[in-house]
């Protein structure tokens, strides 16, 4: 029996959140309900995606929802080091500008 996919958001010393693991259809609702939050309203928040193990349309939907939630709080959310597969999916869906993907 395989374990259900999981993800974790860790805060590093520089204040960047690091997303590790997998966000998929199995745990997307959990991730959707817990968007990353900046400590200061209006402050920029960086989320490093380098340790994201895989990405599919559920991952993309969650990241879009997190971006929308951040905008509602007057926060700039930037995704750093997005895996190429996620970049390709965002381009195909024409949502690159919504995500603020940073190389």
Task: Summarize this structure briefly.
The protein is α/β, with parallel strands linked by helices and 103 residues long. The chain has helices spanning 28-32, 57-72, 84-92, 96-99, and strands at residues 7-11, 17-22, 44-48, 52-54, 76-80, 101-102.
Explain this structure to me?
With 103 residues, the protein is of the alpha/beta class. It has a single domain, classed as 2-Layer Sandwich (Transcription Regulator spoIIAA), CATH 3.30.750. Helices cover 33% and strands 25% of the residues. Strands 1, 2, 3, 4, 5 and 6 form a six-stranded mixed β-sheet that branches. It is globular, with a radius of gyration of 13 Å.
Keywords:
globular; 103 residues; alpha/beta; Transcription Regulator spoIIAA; single chain
Give the beta-strand count.
Answer: 6
In total, how many domains does the architecture comprise? Answer: 1
CATH structural architecture: 2-Layer Sandwich
Shape: globular
As for the CATH topology, it is Transcription Regulator spoIIAA
Indicate the mean pLDDT: 89
Major β-sheet profile: 6 strands, mixed
Number of helical segments with 4 or more residues? 4
Spans with pLDDT under 50 lasting ≥5 residues?
none
| Fraction in beta strands | 25-35%
Rg, rounded, reads 13 Å
In CATH, what is the class? Alpha Beta
User: What is the end-to-end distance?
Assistant: 37 Å
Structural class: alpha/beta
């Amino acid at each position: 029996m395989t374990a259900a996919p999981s993800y974790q958001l860790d805060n590093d010393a520089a204040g960047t959140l690091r997303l590790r693991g997998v966000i998929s259809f199995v745990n997307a609702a959990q991730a959707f309900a817990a968007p990353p939050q900046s400590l200061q309203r209006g402050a920029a928040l960086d989320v490093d995606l380098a340790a994201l193990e895989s990405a599919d349309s559920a991952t993309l939907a969650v990241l879009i929802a997190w971006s929308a939630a951040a905008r509602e709080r007057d926060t700039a959310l930037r995704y750093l080091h997005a895996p190429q597969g996620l970049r390709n999916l965002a381009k195909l869906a024409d949502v690159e500008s919504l995500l603020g993907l940073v190389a």
